[in-house]
Design goal:
By secondary structure, the protein is an alpha/beta fold. It has a domain at about 25-230: Aldolase class I (TIM Barrel, Alpha-Beta Barrel), CATH 3.20.20. The protein has helices at about 5-10, 15, 60-70, 90-100, 115-125, 140-145, 150-165, 185-195, 210-215, 240-245, 275-280, 280-290; strands at about 30-35, 75-80, 105-110, 130-135, 175-180, 200-205, 245, 250-255, 265-270, 310. The chain has a ten-stranded mixed sheet. Strand 3, helix 5 (about 115-125) and strand 4 form a beta-alpha-beta unit. Helix 3 runs parallel beside helix 4 (about 90-100) and helix 5 (about 115-125) packs across helix 7 (about 150-165). It is globular, with a radius of gyration of 19 Å.
Length: about 300
């Protein structure tokens, strides 16, 4: 059956790509939701290691408030950010509620908590898009950076989802693999891309940011690997603050999906609407700083130079 990713309609639209040259929208293109900031992994590069804000799980009350407002504008949500969504006991209820409101739903996962029953539930809920977050271009690099020996488990879960989607003739979700690399050989990167492009719907390859964790955590374990980081440190005009809003598990609304510790929090959704935060004086000030190349004035903007290619 023909497959389609409705999120690509947004990402590839002229309005989304050229957002800095256009008037601010009444409401964001996308809203990122953090079901939890707990994770089942302890990856070498992840800001989970240096996060100081409290950990917890989003309530259904907060989630419904988010979805109800997004539904007014037909705005999709992405279940994503600084935790593993599948740890949330009500995740499937979240997805079901959002789909009842006829909005698109995306899920990003490390994939290790999936099994046949959960995969079939995602199919039946008509999840629109899923990203399997991997690491590196080889099993060895995954093991090093993801700090576990479960590469084969992840690979098997992805292949199981593909098999079941084909077997039961589901046309969704769109299945995407995302990885970030350090200094792997180009031949290894090409082999990874070629392998998965023949199986999944799309593949994304980016760079791994180790500096963020090393600067804050300062552990001897990380320092030897800093020379593996190959990110080109080049600041570009920020589009994030005109494209999306992100909501932490406790309802805090932040200007950026990369804001792991809440330094760019605008307030809490219990007190104001998303539309009010979108047009708030505080967010306008952040936009002004970034428009005027003030990246170094804000955290985590001062270390924001991630590059990412999708195929």
């Amino acid at each position: 059956m023909e497959k389609h990713n409705p999120f690509y309609d947004i990402y590839r639209s002229k309005e989304y790509r050229e957002v800095n040259n256009l008037p601010l929208r009444k409401f964001p293109f996308i809203v990122d939701v953090e079901p939890t900031n707990w994770c089942n992994l302890n990856c070498l590069f992840c800001a989970q290691r240096i996060m100081t804000r409290p950990r917890g799980f989003m309530s259904m009350e907060i989630f419904k408030k988010i979805v109800d407002e997004c539904a007014q504008y037909n705005t999709p949500i992405r279940l994503i950010r600084w935790g593993e969504p599948l740890l949330h006991e009500q995740l499937f209820d979240f997805i079901a509620y959002a789909k009842q409101k006829n909005i698109y739903v995306h899920l990003t996962t490390n994939g290790l908590l999936l099994d046949r029953d959960k995969i079939m539930t995602l199919f039946k809920l008509r999840l629109d898009s899923i990203i399997f977050s991997m690491q590196g271009a080889t099993e060895e690099e995954y093991k090093l950076m993801r700090n576990n020996n479960k590469y084969r488990d992840l690979e098997n879960n992805i292949k199981l989802m593909l098999k079941l989607r084909e077997e039961y003739q589901f046309n969704r979700p769109w299945i995407h693999i995302s990885t970030t690399i350090t200094n792997e050989m180009q031949e290894e990167v090409n082999a990874f891309k070629n392998k998965w492009m023949g199986l999944v719907d799309s593949v994304g390859i980016g760079k791994t940011n180790l500096e963020r964790v090393a600067l804050r955590e300062n552990l001897a374990r990380i320092k030897p690997y800093l020379n593996k980081q190959t990110i080109k440190k080049e600041y570009r005009p920020c589009t994030e603050v005109r494209q999306k809003l992100s909501i932490n598990w406790n309802g805090d609304v932040t200007a950026c999906c990369s804001d792991y510790d809440g330094t760019l929090v605008l307030g809490n959704i219990k007190d104001k609407s998303l539309e009010e935060f979108w047009h708030s004086t505080k967010l306008d000030k952040i936009r002004y700083i970034l428009d005027n190349n003030g990246f170094k004035e804000l955290e985590p903007c001062n270390l924001c130079y991630h590059t990412y290619d999708s195929f």
